[in-house]
Amino acid sequence: MTPSLQRTPTNRPRRAAAVQPDFQPDGEILSVTVCPAPPGAFVVAVHGEVDRSTGPLLCDRLLHHLRPAHPRLVIDLTDVSFFGAAGLTVLVTVREAAETAGVRLCLVAGTRVVLRPLAITGLDELFDVCPDVAHARLRPGDVADDDCILPGPRAGPGTPSSV
Protein backbone atom coordinates (compact mmCIF):
# COMPACT_ATOMS: atom_id res chain seq x y z
CA MET A 1 0.00 0.00 0.00
CA THR A 2 1.32 3.41 -0.98
CA PRO A 3 1.08 6.10 1.68
CA SER A 4 -0.85 9.17 0.62
CA LEU A 5 -0.33 12.68 1.78
CA GLN A 6 -3.36 14.57 2.79
CA ARG A 7 -3.53 18.31 2.74
CA THR A 8 -4.53 19.78 6.05
CA PRO A 9 -6.76 22.82 5.80
CA THR A 10 -5.24 26.14 6.80
CA ASN A 11 -6.61 29.64 7.11
CA ARG A 12 -3.89 31.02 4.86
CA PRO A 13 -4.83 32.05 1.32
CA ARG A 14 -3.41 29.87 -1.46
CA ARG A 15 -0.34 31.22 -3.21
CA ALA A 16 -0.58 31.93 -6.89
CA ALA A 17 1.12 29.40 -9.13
CA ALA A 18 2.68 32.06 -11.32
CA VAL A 19 3.05 35.81 -11.20
CA GLN A 20 0.89 37.44 -13.83
CA PRO A 21 2.47 40.31 -15.78
CA ASP A 22 1.17 43.79 -15.18
CA PHE A 23 -0.48 44.54 -18.52
CA GLN A 24 -0.97 48.00 -19.97
CA PRO A 25 -4.59 49.06 -20.63
CA ASP A 26 -4.42 47.72 -24.19
CA GLY A 27 -3.21 44.31 -22.97
CA GLU A 28 0.47 44.85 -23.77
CA ILE A 29 3.36 44.63 -21.33
CA LEU A 30 5.26 47.37 -23.18
CA SER A 31 4.10 50.32 -25.21
CA VAL A 32 6.23 52.85 -27.04
CA THR A 33 4.97 56.28 -28.09
CA VAL A 34 6.94 58.50 -30.44
CA CYS A 35 6.43 62.19 -30.97
CA PRO A 36 8.53 64.70 -32.89
CA ALA A 37 9.98 67.44 -30.72
CA PRO A 38 11.30 70.34 -32.73
CA PRO A 39 13.93 71.34 -33.45
CA GLY A 40 15.27 68.12 -34.96
CA ALA A 41 14.44 65.68 -32.19
CA PHE A 42 12.22 62.75 -31.34
CA VAL A 43 10.91 61.87 -27.90
CA VAL A 44 10.26 58.15 -27.46
CA ALA A 45 8.16 57.48 -24.36
CA VAL A 46 8.40 53.94 -22.99
CA HIS A 47 5.64 52.55 -20.76
CA GLY A 48 5.66 49.20 -18.99
CA GLU A 49 8.27 46.49 -18.59
CA VAL A 50 11.60 46.26 -20.40
CA ASP A 51 12.83 42.69 -20.14
CA ARG A 52 14.05 39.82 -22.31
CA SER A 53 10.72 39.45 -24.07
CA THR A 54 10.09 43.16 -24.76
CA GLY A 55 13.69 44.33 -25.28
CA PRO A 56 13.92 43.41 -28.99
CA LEU A 57 10.73 45.37 -29.79
CA LEU A 58 12.03 48.42 -27.93
CA CYS A 59 15.42 48.15 -29.61
CA ASP A 60 13.81 48.01 -33.08
CA ARG A 61 11.62 51.03 -32.35
CA LEU A 62 14.55 53.08 -31.04
CA LEU A 63 16.89 52.15 -33.88
CA HIS A 64 14.18 53.11 -36.38
CA HIS A 65 14.31 56.70 -35.09
CA LEU A 66 18.08 57.17 -35.35
CA ARG A 67 18.37 59.48 -38.33
CA PRO A 68 21.00 62.10 -39.11
CA ALA A 69 18.17 64.43 -40.18
CA HIS A 70 17.02 64.36 -36.53
CA PRO A 71 20.21 64.82 -34.53
CA ARG A 72 18.63 64.21 -31.13
CA LEU A 73 16.76 61.24 -29.63
CA VAL A 74 15.22 61.50 -26.17
CA ILE A 75 14.22 58.22 -24.53
CA ASP A 76 11.67 58.85 -21.78
CA LEU A 77 11.81 55.99 -19.25
CA THR A 78 9.76 57.65 -16.49
CA ASP A 79 6.82 55.24 -16.91
CA VAL A 80 8.92 52.04 -16.96
CA SER A 81 7.80 49.65 -14.22
CA PHE A 82 10.53 47.02 -14.70
CA PHE A 83 13.99 47.48 -16.19
CA GLY A 84 16.06 44.32 -16.46
CA ALA A 85 19.44 43.49 -17.94
CA ALA A 86 17.86 43.32 -21.39
CA GLY A 87 16.90 46.97 -21.02
CA LEU A 88 20.51 47.88 -20.31
CA THR A 89 21.57 45.92 -23.40
CA VAL A 90 19.03 47.82 -25.51
CA LEU A 91 20.36 51.16 -24.29
CA VAL A 92 23.99 50.24 -25.01
CA THR A 93 23.07 48.96 -28.50
CA VAL A 94 21.11 52.12 -29.30
CA ARG A 95 23.89 54.34 -27.92
CA GLU A 96 26.47 52.69 -30.20
CA ALA A 97 24.18 53.10 -33.21
CA ALA A 98 23.46 56.73 -32.25
CA GLU A 99 27.18 57.53 -32.14
CA THR A 100 27.63 55.98 -35.58
CA ALA A 101 24.68 57.96 -36.98
CA GLY A 102 25.78 61.21 -35.33
CA VAL A 103 22.64 61.39 -33.18
CA ARG A 104 22.80 62.73 -29.64
CA LEU A 105 21.03 60.45 -27.18
CA CYS A 106 19.49 61.53 -23.90
CA LEU A 107 17.65 59.42 -21.31
CA VAL A 108 14.86 60.74 -19.11
CA ALA A 109 14.68 58.82 -15.87
CA GLY A 110 13.73 59.69 -12.35
CA THR A 111 12.70 56.40 -10.79
CA ARG A 112 14.76 53.88 -8.88
CA VAL A 113 13.56 51.13 -11.25
CA VAL A 114 15.69 52.64 -14.02
CA LEU A 115 18.31 54.68 -12.18
CA ARG A 116 19.50 51.85 -9.92
CA PRO A 117 20.52 49.42 -12.73
CA LEU A 118 22.21 52.30 -14.57
CA ALA A 119 24.17 53.26 -11.45
CA ILE A 120 25.14 49.70 -10.48
CA THR A 121 26.56 49.01 -13.93
CA GLY A 122 28.21 52.42 -14.28
CA LEU A 123 26.14 53.19 -17.36
CA ASP A 124 24.86 56.37 -15.72
CA GLU A 125 28.32 57.79 -16.49
CA LEU A 126 27.98 56.81 -20.16
CA PHE A 127 24.57 58.40 -20.86
CA ASP A 128 23.13 61.87 -20.52
CA VAL A 129 20.40 61.33 -17.91
CA CYS A 130 17.87 64.11 -17.40
CA PRO A 131 15.17 64.38 -14.75
CA ASP A 132 12.39 65.33 -17.17
CA VAL A 133 11.55 65.68 -20.86
CA ALA A 134 11.56 69.49 -20.76
CA HIS A 135 15.20 69.50 -19.67
CA ALA A 136 16.15 66.84 -22.23
CA ARG A 137 14.50 68.72 -25.11
CA LEU A 138 16.79 71.70 -24.77
CA ARG A 139 19.03 72.08 -27.77
CA PRO A 140 22.59 70.84 -27.25
CA GLY A 141 23.93 74.42 -27.30
CA ASP A 142 21.46 75.61 -24.65
CA VAL A 143 22.74 73.47 -21.82
CA ALA A 144 26.13 72.20 -20.76
CA ASP A 145 26.49 68.42 -20.71
CA ASP A 146 26.94 68.46 -16.92
CA ASP A 147 23.58 70.20 -16.48
CA CYS A 148 21.76 67.22 -17.98
CA ILE A 149 22.90 64.77 -15.33
CA LEU A 150 20.66 64.21 -12.34
CA PRO A 151 21.97 66.06 -9.32
CA GLY A 152 23.42 64.07 -6.46
CA PRO A 153 22.85 64.73 -2.78
CA ARG A 154 23.63 68.30 -1.83
CA ALA A 155 25.44 69.36 1.27
CA GLY A 156 23.14 71.11 3.69
CA PRO A 157 23.92 73.41 6.58
CA GLY A 158 26.27 71.75 9.01
CA THR A 159 27.10 69.00 6.49
CA PRO A 160 30.71 68.78 5.35
CA SER A 161 31.09 69.40 1.64
CA SER A 162 33.54 67.52 -0.54
CA VAL A 163 36.41 69.47 -2.04
From TrEMBL:
SUPFAM superfamilies: SpoIIaa-like. It comes from the Bacteria. InterPro entries: Anti-sigma_ant (IPR003658), STAS_dom (IPR002645), STAS_dom_sf (IPR036513). Residues 39-125 form the STAS domain. Belongs to the anti-sigma-factor antagonist family. PANTHER family: ANTI-SIGMA FACTOR ANTAGONIST TM_1081-RELATED, ANTI-SIGMA FACTOR ANTAGONIST TM_1081-RELATED-RELATED. NCBIfam families: ant_ant_sig. This is Anti-sigma factor antagonist. It comes from Lentzea rhizosphaerae.
